[in-house]
Amino acid sequence: MEGTRIRRLEERDIDAAIALTDLEAWGYTREDFQRLLALSPDGCFAAERYGRVVGVLTTTTYDDLAFLGAVIVAPELRGKGVGKEMMEAALAHLRATGVRTVQLNAYLNAIPFYERLGFHREYEVIRWHGLAKAGERVRGIRPVRAEDLTGLARMDAKYFGANRQKLLARLAKEFPSTFLVAENRGRLRGFIVGNPSGASCEIGPWVVEPGSRRVATDLYRALIDSAGASQVALSGPSQNGALLEFVSESRFKEVFRALRMWWGANEFPGDPAGLWAVGGLEKG
Ligand SMILES: CC(C)(COP(=O)(O)OP(=O)(O)OC[C@H]1O[C@@H](n2cnc3c(N)ncnc32)[C@H](O)[C@@H]1OP(=O)(O)O)[C@@H](O)C(=O)NCCC(=O)NCCS
Question: Looking at residue 137, what is its pLDDT?
Answer without folding.
Answer: 77
